[in-house]
């Protein structure tokens, strides 16, 4: 005779207790604690926040690098705001930044989407194309300065295209060279951003579009581009901040010339501080660049709605 044992039904979960049990896992499992961010926070504070505060204080001082700084109030700010070279440098900085965004954005999107595919020899061509990304701005500027030398470079051999060959002798051609060199160097970086974003687009969207009869171009404009929206905004912010703080390219290629026709704000800050030994005015210009980059970035984020976007894959609400 066999005895049949019946197990008691499991107790119904208590809702409050379940929530209390899951809360620590949700809080600790998805986001690390503050201690994980402490080293990066200290590093940022030591090498970014503290120097920025020192520059802000120095912008109200008169100091030539020797002796003790002397407080002069807003004299440095009044001088740079009344300086025609400073006003001109602001417009040149905005122009170069706008050219960088206009040239690099479409190139980066097209190349990034292409590099995300499975074309033949794609990996080899991508590796060759990304070589400029491995070089420093100084090395790139020295390279193109030699290649575009009016006496021994490419323009001297192709006078039928470049005229007298002196691309640095006129403002328009000099600005064109600066925009071209920046595009050649930094487009691969933004291409990497779009390459990663394009690979994250769900393939089911393309499959559904193909079933509906959408071709390659319609898929690009109606699926790929909308899915790259957040990457476009991120890339544009990086381009704007980088354009406002460009320095090495101008220093090596044009040195602000001809005259002051390519003297952007960052280079003018260098001239004031390290050539004219007017560190107060140089600090004021530097602080203006920081404020301008911050304001423009916030405007882009606000207008684009980037601050209201939420992730749909990481569970962050």
UniProtKB/TrEMBL annotation:
The record lists the membrane-crossing segments as: 34-60, 89-115, 127-148, 232-253, 279-301
Name any Gene Ontology BP term.
transmembrane transport
Task: Write down the InterPro entries for this protein, in alphabetical order.
Answer: ABC_transporter_permease, MetI-like, MetI-like_sf
Ranges for the ABC transmembrane type-1 domain?
90-300
Q: Which GO terms describe its cellular component?
A: plasma membrane
Q: Which UniProt keywords apply?
A: Cell membrane, Membrane, Transmembrane, Transmembrane helix, Transport
Where does the record say this protein resides? Cell membrane
Going by the entry's taxonomy, the superkingdom of the source organism is recorded as Bacteria
Q: Which PROSITE patterns match?
A: ABC_TM1
How is this protein positioned relative to the membrane? Multi-pass membrane protein
Entry coiled-coil feature ranges: none
One Pfam family of this protein, by short name? BPD_transp_1
According to the record, the residues making up region (Disordered) are: 1-21
Protein family? Belongs to the binding-protein-dependent transport system permease family.
Q: Tell me which PANTHER family the record gives.
A: ABC TRANSPORTER PERMEASE PROTEIN, INNER MEMBRANE ABC TRANSPORTER PERMEASE PROTEIN YCJO
Give the protein's recorded name.
Sugar ABC transporter permease
Instruction: Write down the species.
Output: Streptomyces dangxiongensis
């Amino acid at each position: 005779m066999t005895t049949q044992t019946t197990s008691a039904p499991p107790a119904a979960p208590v809702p409050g207790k379940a929530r209390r049990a899951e809360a620590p896992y949700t809080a600790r499992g998805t986001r690390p604690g503050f201690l994980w961010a402490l080293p990066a926070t200290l590093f940022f504070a030591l090498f970014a926040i503290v120097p920025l505060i020192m520059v802000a204080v120095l912008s109200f001082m008169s100091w030539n690098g020797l002796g003790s700084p002397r407080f002069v109030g807003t004299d440095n700010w009044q001088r740079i705001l009344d300086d025609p070279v400073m006003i001109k440098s602001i417009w040149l900085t905005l122009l170069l930044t706008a050219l960088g965004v206009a040239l690099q954005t479409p190139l980066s999107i097209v190349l990034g989407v292409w590099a995300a595919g499975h074309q033949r020899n794609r990996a080899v061509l991508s590796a060759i194309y990304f070589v400029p990304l491995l070089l420093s701005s100084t090395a790139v500027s020295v390279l193109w300065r030699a290649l575009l030398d009016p006496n021994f470079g490419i323009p001297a051999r192709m006078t039928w295209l470049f005229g007298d060959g002196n691309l640095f002798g006129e403002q328009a051609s000099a600005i064109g060279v600066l925009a071209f060199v920046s595009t050649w160097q930094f487009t691969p970086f933004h291409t990497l951003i779009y390459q990663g974003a394009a690979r994250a687009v769900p393939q089911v969207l393309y499959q559904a579009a193909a079933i509906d009869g959408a071709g390659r171009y319609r898929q690009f404009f109606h699926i790929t581009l909308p899915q790259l929206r957040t990457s476009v905004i991120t890339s544009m912010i990086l381009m704007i901040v980088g354009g406002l703080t460009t320095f090495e390219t101008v220093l090596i290629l044009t040195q602000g010339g001809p005259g002051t026709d390519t003297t952007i704000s960052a280079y003018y800050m260098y001239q004031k501080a390290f050539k004219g030994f007017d560190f107060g005015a140089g600090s004021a210009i530097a602080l203006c660049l920081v404020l301008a980059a911050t304001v423009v970035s916030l405007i882009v984020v606000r207008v684009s709605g980037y601050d209201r976007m939420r992730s749909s894959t990481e569970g962050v609400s």
